[in-house]
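pasting for the record
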Amino acid sequence: MAVKTISPTDDFSAVSPVASGGDYLTYRVLPEPDVFIHTSGGARIPAHTSILASVSPVLENMIDQPRKHRSSERIIPIHGVPCEAVTAFVGFLYCSRCTEEQMEMYGMHLLTLSHVYSVPQLKQRCIKALAERLTIENVVDMLQLARLCNAPDLYIKCMKLLTNHFKSVEATEGWKFLQRYDPWLELDILRFMDEDESRKKKSRRQREEQRLYIELSEAMECLEHICTEGCTDVGPYGVELRKEKKPCSKFSTCRGLQLLIKHFATCNKRMNGGCLRCKRMWQLFRLHSSICQQTDSCKVPLCREIQMKMQQQEKRKEDPRWKLLERKVASARALSALSLPKRKRDEGIRVTMNNYGIRSFNFK
């Protein structure tokens, strides 16, 4: 095979860029090259051991290896990639620059070279450029390369693209090749997709649960608001409800709670525990009592009575789900209190209760 030598006068190895102020570059002449890089295409790229060793520890070790004959020239073989890619790689070692055209044509080869010869600056540049050029057609090749070159950022981007467009990727030649020759990577992909779906389901479930806790926290605020100030149709006993009173800021929740309180006050089934709506009202009373911090001054009916009953039953085994609900609602209420202004309360209203707390309400 004929060996082609790149002339130093036409190549970067004869000069070195030096910043001279502003955006301009001047060049200083380097000494004669003392090492040649041989490529698979038969090219000889002249270079300088001092520059190569200062940028790449792998090349430094190769340069420091003893030669058989002192008079023989130093040769570093870089095979397996196109000659132009090697030229761009050595150019980066000298100038710390790489053109967009070179990255477009040889980005995958440059990533391989930067990983093999430990050039982290070029490696990060390649990872960023290749991530911007990800497509459905090349994602499988990029994924294999990212795994071989230990590029986790590129690996994750490939996995996400593949997961979001799996049907399209499944029809490509790259995927068929992967199934035939790399079943372990295929297994990793399917496992990642399964875990991603599990994470999405868990995230949706957590959002739904958080939404429920926030709604219950809002219901607790509305219950205190109704029992303390009164709203459009229901208010504390002894307080006159004005027709011209404007709805509160959380009227959508407050309205439903007022209707529930009205039903609770007139239902004949609640004594026997046969009404689901009344059971829901009792649960709201119990939930309020479990998180209420104003034991002596609370205006909500049955708050003190329920708390005393709960204290008497402390020795009995509590329902862990109910305890978890209490903690979650209390937490949601605390977060809501930090983000919203505290509702003004009229502490001068006095509320009287009978055994069932019905006379504590005033209905319009």
